[in-house]
Design goal:
With 548 residues, this protein is of the alpha/beta class. It has helices at 2-15, 19-31, 34-41, 65-81, 104-117, 131-140, 175-184, 205-214, 238-248, 281-290, 320-333, 349-357, 368-371, 399-415, 420-431, 447-458, 524-546, and strands spanning 52-55, 93-98, 121-124, 145-149, 158-165, 200-201, 228-231, 254-255, 294-298, 305-311, 314-317, 339-343, 361-364, 377-382, 386-388, 433-442, 463-464, 467-474, 488-492, 495-501, 507-516. Helix 4 (65-81) runs parallel beside helix 5.
Length: 548
């Protein structure tokens, strides 16, 4: 076993194109560090519907140039095997974007070289830009596929590889498995042609086209008065968001300067995710000093949008479900037509808003790869701060256009002497108070997640928080509306719980919702107290049932 491990490591080392990871791996081999080598060579980083995502480092279980070259070659083989619409020179175009993380530019360049070597055309965005710009560029340029090198809001040590097909939305089965099979078929990097040139580096025309498209998000003649504090969370959103806000005529956002510049080490936050504890502290400090109407944050690749408001004497983050409902209500008021959609882990309030407005409504599996594929989509959202407000332009979540739309709504309400919280109160009185929360457990040992899922499947809870479970569904079997996925859904009297492993992080995620009837605004405080009590009890009982 030891000799085999060393042999595999040496074989990888011999064809590793990156001096940095070669040095790292050589040191491990020389030191005979079999534990670390085993962790890196115990398998391969699996390509799935989230593409690739993992820790940077040497070996097939890490993100590195060798893994990325294989992934790009597998994608190129898939595109050629399945046929691609032909450009003028007979080769389909693949557009490549990247964020400002460690190695992102290298991975983008490698991808362009592989596509070119495979006889496809490749075009790379001019610099690190938000993921939505890449998603837009695929459709705008008529590409057959797109790649975004990003790990979104993962820790600094991670990077990732997200694949889109020519419709501008992320891959779903069976494309993921077919691409993975092509990756597995690559015996050696020596078999992958990688010319030194031959691809195009795009200029700012594609970014200008994206920014011009953002105008379509806002209503003609709508007020543009809301003042904002903005943090880019050390990512790539700042320049694009500032340009979009300037085009729209909003007041220039006040920047959280400590987090404004791209920095792959994310020095001011433990996790560069607005939802994580402490991530918004600097933004709140800037808001206390400048008293804006709202605080806006993007995650590092700017496909997510977080919103915070003043609540009483201080600032608080709105939940993704609250922002999702606010944007839906705003679009309904503006007369939007088309289907409203969300993933199954998001609040059922969207269905009530759509139903009352007489609009079609769809639920999908988790992820915008599913939401973006809903027929006739007009608006889609997911509770993890993802909003698709212009599906004709960007068939994915977009933190820039979502920021524009929520700031327009805040401006409309400001003109009426109201706030986002006032509109949330109105929605609760109209549709019932929909309160959501999450039980999220990060693990080092992935077997703990499998154990919890097995325990819940073998002994599903009969009640949670004293509320009877009226329906228990194992989503791995699929439903009449949903394809199979690893998850469990419990319907209770006045509540709903979904449990699933995260697709991108070592986490077990449990999504909780309770609905408390409320007849008028005076009843809201009591309804909120009851909802908080129920959510705490559901969380406690579910944790016990899952053994986490």
């Amino acid at each position: 076993m030891h000799d085999d491990l060393i042999a595999r490591a040496k074989a990888w080392l011999a064809e590793d194109p990156d001096a940095e990871t070669r040095e790292e791996l050589a040191k491990l081999i020389d030191a005979g560090d079999t534990d670390e080598l085993a962790a890196r060579f115990s398998g391969t980083l699996q390509f799935g519907t989230a593409g690739l995502r993992g820790e940077l480092g040497a070996g097939p279980m890490r993100m590195n140039r060798g893994v990325v070259i294989r992934a790009a070659a597998g994608l190129a083989a898939y595109l050629k095997k399945n046929g691609t619409p032909h450009g003028g020179d007979g080769a389909g175009l693949v557009v490549i974007g990247y964020d400002a993380r460690h190695k992102s530019a290298d991975f983008a360049r490698d991808t362009a070289a592989v596509m070119t070597g495979a006889g496809l055309r490749a075009a790379v965005l001019p610099r690190p830009l938000p993921t939505p710009v890449l998603a837009f560029a695929i459709r705008h340029l008529g590409a057959v596929a797109g790649v975004e090198v990003t790990a979104s809001h993962n820790p600094p040590r991670d990077n990732g590889y997200k694949v889109y097909l020519g419709d501008g939305s992320q891959i779903v089965p069976p494309a993921d498995a077919e691409i993975a099979a092509e990756i597995d078929a690559i015996a050696s990097l020596d078999d992958v042609p990688r010319p030194e040139s031959g691809w195009e580096t795009l200029d700012d025309a594609v970014l200008d086209a994206y920014l011009a498209r953002t105008d379509a998000v806002l209503g003609a003649g709508s007020p543009r008065t809301a003042r904002t504090v903005y943090t880019a969370m050390h990512g790539v959103g700042r320049d694009v968001l500032l340009a979009a806000f300037a085009r729209a005529g909003f007041p220039e956002p006040v920047l959280v300067t400590e987090q404004a510049d791209p920095d792959p080490d994310f020095p001011t936050v433990a996790f560069p995710n607005p939802e994580e504890p402490g991530a918004m502290d600097l933004a709140f400090a800037r808001a206390r000093a400048t008293d804006p109407d709202l605080v806006i944050a993007n995650d590092p690749d700017a496909d997510r949008c977080a919103v915070a408001v003043k609540d009483g004497g201080d600032w608080r983050m709105l939940r993704g479900d609250e922002v999702g409902a606010l944007l839906a209500a705003h679009l309904v008021r503006r007369g939007a037509r088309g289907t409203f959609a969300e993933s199954i882990v998001s609040s059922s309030l969207l269905g009530r808003i759509a139903g009352k407005a007489g609009l079609p409504y769809e639920e999908t599996l988790t992820g915008f790869k599913w939401i973006a594929r809903v027929d006739g989509l007009r608006y889609g959202y997911e509770e993890a701060l993802g909003y698709c407000v212009d599906p004709e332009g960007v068939r994915d979540k977009d933190g820039i256009t979502a920021a524009l739309l929520i700031t327009e709504l805040a401006s409309v309400l400001k003109e009426e002497g109201r706030t986002l919280l006032d509109l949330l109160d109105d929605l609760a009185v109209e549709h019932g108070l929909h309160a959501t929360d999450q039980l999220s457990v990060r693990v080092q040992d992935l077997s703990l997640i499998a154990d919890a899922m097995r325990r819940l499947r073998e002994q599903p809870p009969a009640e949670l928080a004293g509320l009877p479970v009226t329906r228990a569904e194992d989503l791995s079997l699929g439903t009449d509306r949903l394809p199979p996925t690893d998850g469990l859904r419990y319907t209770l009297t006045g509540a709903r719980v979904i449990v699933r492993p995260s697709g991108t992080e070592p986490k077990l995620k449990c999504y909780l919702e309770v609905v408390v009837p409320v007849t008028d605004h005076a009843g809201l405080p009591a309804a909120r107290a009851r909802a908080a009590e129920l959510l705490n009890a559901v969380r406690r009982d579910l944790s016990a049932a899952a053994g986490i």
